[in-house]
Amino acid sequence: MKKLLSLFQASLMALPLSLAVQMNATAKDLKDIKIAVIPKVAVPFFDDCNNGAKAEADKLGVQYQWVVPQNTQGSTQVRILEDLISKKVDGIAISVNEPKSVEAAIKKAMASGIKVLTFDSDSPNSGRSMYIGTINSAAGETMGESMAKAIGGEGEVAIITGQLGAVNLNERIDGIKKSLAKYPKIKIVATEGTEDDLAKAVSVTETIFRGNPALKGIFGVSQVGGPAVSKVMATKEFGAKKGAVKVFAFDDLPDTIKGVKEGYIQGIMVQRPVTMGKLSVEHLVDQITGKEKSPKNVDTGVNVVNSQNLDSYTK
Amino acid sequence: MEVGSTSPSRWSALSLPRVLLGLLRAQEMSVLLALLLVSAGIALVTPYFLTTDNLMGVFRSFSLTAIMSVGMVMVIVTGGIDLSVGSVMGLSGLVTALAFQNGFPTVVCVSFGLGVGFVFGLTNGLLVTAGRLPPFIATLGTLSIGRGLMYIVTRGVPVTPDTPEVFNAIGQGYVGLVPAPVIIMLVLATAFSVIMRFTTFGRHVYATGGNEQAAWLSGVNTSRVKLVVYTLAGAISAIAGIVAFSRYLSAEPASGFGIELDVIAAAVIGGASLSGGVGSVQGAILGAALTGIIANGVVLMNINTYAQQTITGGVILIAVSIDVWRHGRKER
Fold it and tell me: Minimal Cα distance from B240: which residue of A?
């Protein structure tokens, strides 16, 4: 039944395409279009991207390839890009490990007629057609607004981040600061790095609680924040902070979800990897068939997941 | 510190406080002094430092590094180094977690975790002795293998099984006011500082690092000493891994990543010499305490996060330099 449906969909899709072929001489038949998607590395987040991208490719009837780099070095992705250029694929979507190192390879691909876009992690000066992903500063603003509402627009808050040098995390922090600027009675008393290490994050959280007894809110801008804060609040010493200190975290790790269920965390900003994958394939195909002439960046946004929508949110 | 220059023979009347003081010879006294000065400084600035909760929290925070530094300092005293401790810690915690996930009883899960540490430690020891590899290379290899295995098994997702309360007490429990990990640290530190100072094995460890050839010629089986020391370091890292997992109940693929540097630093700040023959367990614990207290202080005082590492490094350099200048000690 599913096959029949997709056949039906494919024939529907083919209809406008045949029109497109007549209009655009360079356009290809959908089944001849080869799309490659390159994640940063094999982690669950990208499994979701793959699922979204694969489903969209199947739906459109294009050829699809998922190429996983063995490590996070910039050079590995450069090699993969060069392989794909020699293989003459038609479109590439890539989540960039090292924005600078892939610039030349992406330019080369674009020059040889391959459509390239970035998703999740961008390389803004590479000449790629567009970026699809979370605009981190916007996500930070959403987080800041949620916090301001939760603590009634006044009080001390702290930020727990991961690597101090991580561009995406710093953009989130900038977003938080921008949104909190509207609330002069909210004061950011501490911003602490954790190197994304749970043990460090727990000890930093404890120390922040001790050093700032009047604290009313904590932002966990990297993925360790949520698990760390809920673990600290689960102890006898800091049990009274549960609910009294509002917590907003990033990414839906199992422990973070548990933190929401148990009332330690008021909201999680969840990115939309499935949507990123789906849109990447959709936009590449549109660019290859000539349907999309002037691509613009797409913000896939974040879901604010809380105890009410915990079981129903989509990625 | 006149205590330091007193020769050990003066301590022949072995009263307990005298033994304790004797354990803190010159090099440890300087670290202790630095520790007290730094603490006094932090206490002057922030009222939240000298509270029971905070101090116990600090002890618990640095206990993992301190526990591992017990094994590390023995390896360093033999003139070696063990870079794999962080990976072994992480992998042991992970294997323990996986055992719980598969429904094994606590004793079995913990044994699996310890087993991982034992096997890795023994492997390190064999590579260094029978394999004649430089310790740096041998343990760099096992570091990568251990971390790689963690990524293969977890694929980046933390393992978070349900665990019985008995097990959770290892990392989260208290004995009176003192957190359980701190008790474990104290027990290990006491046991191994006694072993290192008062047993034949301890003397052999120092002899191996002081002058391996001379030790060998005077009848010390230096290969066996090294094998034992690396195996102990592995097993002790596994204890740290199990404590960490019990504390956080989440075996993270990045758990223990990079911690080997903190552990080596603790041993060296506490007076160990990377060229071997010099160092002590109690010094390593004090070294871990110094860095732990600085880490706590910079957060309590709300020092700008981007400046924290620089300040930490500066304080450590000053603290250790004072000691070196005072004693005109050999370079570490």
Answer: A199
Q: Which of A164-173, B184-193, B323-332 has the highest mean pLDDT?
A: B184-193
Tell me: do A160 and A92 sit in the same domain. no
Residue scoring higher pLDDT (B305 or A262): A262
Residue A222, pLDDT > 80, answer: yes
Q: Is residue A174 part of a domain?
A: yes
CB contact under 8 A, B46 and A211: yes
Is A306 inside a domain boundary?
A: no
| pLDDT surpassing 50 at residue A20 | no
Count of CB pairs separated by less than 8 Å, A with B: 84
State the best of A48, A50, A173, A203 to mutate against chain B, taking most chain B CBs within 10 Å.
A203
Kindly state whether residue A315 falls inside one of the protein's structural domains: no
Same domain, A148 and A266: yes
Predicted confidence at residue A4, as pLDDT, reads 56
The alpha-carbon gap from A202 to the nearest alpha carbon of chain B, in Å, equals 9
Q: Establish if A307 belongs to a structural domain.
A: no
Give SS3 for B228: helix
CB–CB contact B160 A254 (8 Å): yes
In terms of domains, do A217 and A150 share one?
Answer: yes
- Specify burial of residue B186 (Cβ count, 10 A radius: 0-12, 13-18, 19+): middle
| Average pLDDT over every residue of B96-106 | 97
Instruction: Count CB atoms within 10 A of the CB of residue A262.
Output: 13
The answer to whether the CB of A97 falls within 8 A of the CB of A41 is yes
Residues A243, A155 share a domain: yes
CA dist A38 to A50, A57, A77, A196, A287, Å?
9, 14, 8, 24, 18
ipTM score above 0.95: no
Considering the domain architecture, whether residues A119 and A170 belong to the same structural domain is answered as: no
Report how many domains make up chain A. 2
pTM over 0.90: no
Within this chain, do residues A10 and A109 fall inside the same structural domain, yes or no? yes
Same domain as A262, residue A277: no
Provide CB contacts within 8 A for B238, sequence distance 6+: B88, B89, B92, B113, B114, B115, B116, B117, B118, B120
**What pLDDT was estimated at residue B77?**
96
State mean pLDDT over A65-72. Answer: 86
Question: Which of A270, A285, A308 lies at the terminal end of a domain, its last residue?
Answer: A270
Range of the domain at A60: 2-133+273-299
CATH label of the domain that carries residue A190: 3.40.50.2300
Q: How far apart are CA A167 and CA A99, in angstroms?
A: 11
Q: What is the DSSP string of A111-155?
A: HTT-EEEEESS--TTS--S-EEE--HHHHHHHHHHHHHHHTTT-E
> How many angstroms separate the CA atoms of A55 and B66, rounded?
50
Instruction: Measure the CA–CA gap between A128 and A110, rounded to whole angstroms.
Output: 7
Q: What is the 3-state secondary structure (H, E, C) of A212-238?
A: CCCEEEEEECCCCHHHHHHHHHCCCCC
pLDDT at A161: 94
The bridge status of strand A267-270 relative to strand A303-305 is antiparallel
CATH architecture of B23-327: Orthogonal Bundle (1.10)
